[in-house]
Amino acid sequence: MALTRLWLIRHGESLGNVAATRAEEAGAEAIDLDLRDADVPLSPTGEEQARALGGWMREHRGEIGEFWVSPYLRARQTLALSLEDGPPRSSTLVDERLRDRELGILDLLTWQGVQQRHPEEAARRRRLGKYYHRPPGGESWADVALRLRSFLHDALDRPADTAVVVAHDAVVMLLVAVLLPLTEAELLDFASTRTVRNASVTELVRTDSGWRVEQFSAVDHLEREGADVTVHSGDDDDQPR
Fold first, then answer.
1. What is the rounded distance in angstroms from the CA atom of residue 115 to the CA atom of residue 123?
2. Are the C-beta atoms of 163 and 3 separated by less than 8 Å?
3. Cβ-count burial 3-19 (b if 16+ within 10 Å, e if not)
4. What are phi and psi of 143, to 5 degrees?
5. pLDDT band at 232, cuts 50/70/90?
6. What are phi and psi of 120, to 5 degrees?
7. Distance of alpha carbon 112 from alpha carbon 140, whole angstroms
C-alpha cells in the first residue's frame, strides 16, 4: 500500500512566534527568548488554535491512517491538544527529520540583527539566495529538502494510505515543493505569495500523474471554532518558527 493523501499541519502559535514578531516590531536586533528551539512551547493563543484543530481532527478521524510529528515541543503539543479524545499513541510517530530549519549563528536574531551583527552573512544570503544560503552551523532550504526526501522515502511506503504530518512552516512549504515537484524558481515564486498560517491544514493528493495540492494553509476550521488566525512568518527565512 502507498500513501495517496497527505495532510500537512503547521503547529499553533508559539511563544517564539510571539517573541520574534515583538522584536521585529520594536526594531530590535535580538529575540528575547531563553529557550532552545526544540523546547519552545505554544502560546495561549496557540493552545486555543490546537484545540480548535480538534474539530477538524474529529471530522477526518475515520480517514487518517497515521500521524507523523516533529519532535519539537510546539508541534507535539499541537497534535496532543487536537487529539485529546482521539486515536491511541501507537498511531503517532515522532520523526526528527520533521524538525524546524536550524539557523545556526543567526538563531534568535531579527533580520535587522543579522545585518548589524553578521553583515557578511546578510551579503552571502543576497548573493546565494534564500534556497541555498546556509548560515554557519545551520541549514539552507536545500538541506531541509534533503532530509525531507529521506522522510518521504520511508513515509510514502508505510502501510497506511493516508497520513497527517504536524510540523513547521518551512517543513510544510518544502514538503509541497518536493512532492509536486517544484524547481528553486518555482518554489520561491510559490512562497512569495503564500504563507503557512499557524494550525493551518495543507492537503495533497496523489494522482496517476503525480501529487497535486487540494488546499493550502486552510484555516476555516479555526474560524468555525472562534480561534484567532495568526501567520508569524518572520521573514519566512531568518526567524525561529
1. 8
2. yes
3. bbbbbbbbbbbbbbbbb
4. -60, -45
5. confident
6. -65, -35
7. 19
From CA 123, how far away is CA 121, in angstroms rounded? 5
- Give me 149's grid cell: 526526501
pLDDT tens profile 80-116: 999 987 665 558 999 999 999 999 999 999 999 999 9
Q: Is 88 exposed, middle or buried (0-12, 13-18, 19+ CB in 10 A)?
A: exposed
For the chain, give percent helix, strand, coil, nearest 5. 45, 15, 35
User: Is the separation of the CB atoms in 67 and 93 below 8 Å?
Assistant: yes
- Give phi and psi for 106, each to the nearest 5: -90, 0
- What is the DSSP pairing of strand 201-207 with strand 210-218? antiparallel
Domains of the chain are 5-230 (3.40.50.1240)
Question: Of the candidates 177, 173, 151, 162, which has an alpha carbon nearest to the alpha carbon of residue 98?
Answer: 151
pLDDT of residue 96: 98
Q: Read off the pLDDT band of 38 (50, 70, 90).
A: very high
Please state the length of the chain. 241
Q: Is 115 exposed, middle or buried (0-12, 13-18, 19+ CB in 10 A)?
A: middle
pLDDT higher than threshold 70 for residue 127: yes
51 touches 42 (CB < 8 A): no
